[in-house]
Amino acid sequence: MSNREILDAMHNPALQENGYNDVVTQVDFRLSDHPNPRTARKRNIKNAIKALKPTKRPFYSPRRWFRGKYRHTKPNQCVIDGIDCMNADYGDLFDEYFRDPVTLQVKPFTPTAGVLPGRGRDLKGTYCPQHMMLYHNLMEWIEQEEEEDPGFFTKMAKKGVAFVPIMRTEKAPEHPLIVKWTPIFQEAMKDGIQILHYKNPISNENDITMLVFDNRVLAQTAPRSNTMSNMDMAEYYRIMEQMQGQRQ
After folding, report:
1. Best label site of 167, 175, 230, 241, fewest CB within 10 Å?
2. What is the chain's Cα-based Rg?
């Protein structure tokens, strides 16, 4: 069911009269109110995993046997609610989940049947922004749970790992102009603009940094709508189709 069909299925003439032409989902996830923070977090993790499980077709549905047990399988469909994410706005989540953290080039986000990375088969769809935010919160809760593990040092000791306190020397403060222009260079990296560093052969310190607009390189990267906003999702899915075509 497309977003337009979902909107029409609401059977509310006022929606069309007022110019509404698309829908977004609203995820009703209630945080645990348990007084113990760790217990509350564990419950949130359990409930989030349950809420992020992909929607399955009924066992008796013929489509389950011909098209698979998962209902929403298009690349731009949310695997939970089936909403079309082609024009969705992911905000800052796009850079975190749809880009490689090292190269900052676009990469496919692949949810799994078991929700957590590596658990269950990879799914063909995605998460809508609202479910992606819940997934982001889930990852943070799991990270907090691991960091606050009371048996952490015992586990590390069994692996032969010990922690030794040290004192590091503080780095000299950077020049104010470097601090000022650093965000611009970060945006340039996200847009695939090449950055060259020339080191001093004697001190081995960086002397010169240059932005290079190389059309040959830019042609192979995914541009964003502008340097200070997130990439358009339609462009993202177009790039994903090109990447899949190249693999074939």
Report:
1. 167
2. 23
